[in-house]
């Protein structure tokens, strides 16, 4: 059992501001924000939220890029016992609209860079106001920066939130095609922080670089909340592009812990890294998640970056999200490592009976990481969580040492550039296009990029001719860019079994064998 020294995020911050007030909490661009200054900003924004009638249990949504304001908003929202709902900034207006209405968010914080997609939401959702981050001064909007500069700071340091209260709701797409909100408590997220700190031997001297999107559950938990828990520092970079800037910040800010995805590490292996970076960088741990790493990549990376360890892990949003990781003193190629301290994993068959060691089955997880449930979806919660055990939908196996290996995904999940894509969601959008009779979306590994491409197979209605360029124009309006199919195939008829279910396996085999119809 884990021991929890704090009840909520704000208690962590108060402790850091008291014990290490001048320590840098955040590096961003050329600025340094101390823990004392960060606490002042959080207290100020929390006071504004209180004056805006945000109360315990209210949902406040965040469509915010990587910046200091993300951290300030998250901690200020939860200081009041309200619930933060960080959203994927790559989504489009209709996708935001669904989620905001589903969670019943009372207020929205939006980076002004996303104004085109977020401004209409005030009229189309239940939100009462939008607070804009980095909006131009000449815009007649409520600006986050103006609020921090003009609002009185709240001197009240009490926080009503308790360990088992919901802290955040992270939306993850399901097989139904509609996103579901995974409700994560402080206990859930603290268990990840405590177990992660133990596994990575984190100290207050460590510095974490945050260039992957902060809304992502992995980045949020391991690269934002964990370093705050250990009174470490985070280096915020707005984007992975240009990647030369990520390397520059890693070097100049003396980063020690680096989180990436396999496509990034594969790119690093091919890139010509300056000799001075290789000589002077302070990185001791590279963490990889979201998709499998090849054994060759792991070995090549170890040969190139001799001073650091590349550790592969596994997780899912419903588990806050980290579940397994290889250890500094013990790792195995192709394995996602051992369960984090205090978590349990078992491999089960269709009847949920544990299978013998080495056999493949569905991965189940038990521990304080397991979410409270899906918001507004009790039936889906009951299907996913049984007696405290969470069914992941992923197929895997365990060896004699307890190391876990991911074999395949039970669901039709596609992972591209570390982002989860669910075919059903794309299929539902395509189905709405006039002239479409049937559709199937699959993911297919690209041997060149080692990533997964999204492929759509469309059966037009009888006597209908579909134009690809027109269909793509429609899809761009309704889907985030990372969900757009790379290839679209028009077919006379989709292969189906006796019950009418589309045989996606056959589609995949036909494409791989080169026997499929030409792409129009």
Automatic annotation (TrEMBL):
GO-annotated molecular function: medium-chain fatty acid-CoA ligase activity
SUPFAM superfamilies: Acetyl-CoA synthetase-like
Record keywords, A-Z: Ligase, Membrane, Transmembrane, Transmembrane helix
Source superkingdom: Bacteria
Domain AMP-dependent synthetase/ligase: 16-375
Transmembrane segments: 208-229
Any Pfam family: AMP-binding_C
GO biological process: fatty acid metabolic process
AMP-binding enzyme C-terminal domain sequence ranges: 425-501
Keyword Membrane: yes
Entry similarity comment: Belongs to the ATP-dependent AMP-binding enzyme family.
Protein's name in the database: AMP-dependent synthetase and ligase
Organism: Sulfurospirillum deleyianum (strain ATCC 51133 / DSM 6946 / 5175)
């Amino acid at each position: 059992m884990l021991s929890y020294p704090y009840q909520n995020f704000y208690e962590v911050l108060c402790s850091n501001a008291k014990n290490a007030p001048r320590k840098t909490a955040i590096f961003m661009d050329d600025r340094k924000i101390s823990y004392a200054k960060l606490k002042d900003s959080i207290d100020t924004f929390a006071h504004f939220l209180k004056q805006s009638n945000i109360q315990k249990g209210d949902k406040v949504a965040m469509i915010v890029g990587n910046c200091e304001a993300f951290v300030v908003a998250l901690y200020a929202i939860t200081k009041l016992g309200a619930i933060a709902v960080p959203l994927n900034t790559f989504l489009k207006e209709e996708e935001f609209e669904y989620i905001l209405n589903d969670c019943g968010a009372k207020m929205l914080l939006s980076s002004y860079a996303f104004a085109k997609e977020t401004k209409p939401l005030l009229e189309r959702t239940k939100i009462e106001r939008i607070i804009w981050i980095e909006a131009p001064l000449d815009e007649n909007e409520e600006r986050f920066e103006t609020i921090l500069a003009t609002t009185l700071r709240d001197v009240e340091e009490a926080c009503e939130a308790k360990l088992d209260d919901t802290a955040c709701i992270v939306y993850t797409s399901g097989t139904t095609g509609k996103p579901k909100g995974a409700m994560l408590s402080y206990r859930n997220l603290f268990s990840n922080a405590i177990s992660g700190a133990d596994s990575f031997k984190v100290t207050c001297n460590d510095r974490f670089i945050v260039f992957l999107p902060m809304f992502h559950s992995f980045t949020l938990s391991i690269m934002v909340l964990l370093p705050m828990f250990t009174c470490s520092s985070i280096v915020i970079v707005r984007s992975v592009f240009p990647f030369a800037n990520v390397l520059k910040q890693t070097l100049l800010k003396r980063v020690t812990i680096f989180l990436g995805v396999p496509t990034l590490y594969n790119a690093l292996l091919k890139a010509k890294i300056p000799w001075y970076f290789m000589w002077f960088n302070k990185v001791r741990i590279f963490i990889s998640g979201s998709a499998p790493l090849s054994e060759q990549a792991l070995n090549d990376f170890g040969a190139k970056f001799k001073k650091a360890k590349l550790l592969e892990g596994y997780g899912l949003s419903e588990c806050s999200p980290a579940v397994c990781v290889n250890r500094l003193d013990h790792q195995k190629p192709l394995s996602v490592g051992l369960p984090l301290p205090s978590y349990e994993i078992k491999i089960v068959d269709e009847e949920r009976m544990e299978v013998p060691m080495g056999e493949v089955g569905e991965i189940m997880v038990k521990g304080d990481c397991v979410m409270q449930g899906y918001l507004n979806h009790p039936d889906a919660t009951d299907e996913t969580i049984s007696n405290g055990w969470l069914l992941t939908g992923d197929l895997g196996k365990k060896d004699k040492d307890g190391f876990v290996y991911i074999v395949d995904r039970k669901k039709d999940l596609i992972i591209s550039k570390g982002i989860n894509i669910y075919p059903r969601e794309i299929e539902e959008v395509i189905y709405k296009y006039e002239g479409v009779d049937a559709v199937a979306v699959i993911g297919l590994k690209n041997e060149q990029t080692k990533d997964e491409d999204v492929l759509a197979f469309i059966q037009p209605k009888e006597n209908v001719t579909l134009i690809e360029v027109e269909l793509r124009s429609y899809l761009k309006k309704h889907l985030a860019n990372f969900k757009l199919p790379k290839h679209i195939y028009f077919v006379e008829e989709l292969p189906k079994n006796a019950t009418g279910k589309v045989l996606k396996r056959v589609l995949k085999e036909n494409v791989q064998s080169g026997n499929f119809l030409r792409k129009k």
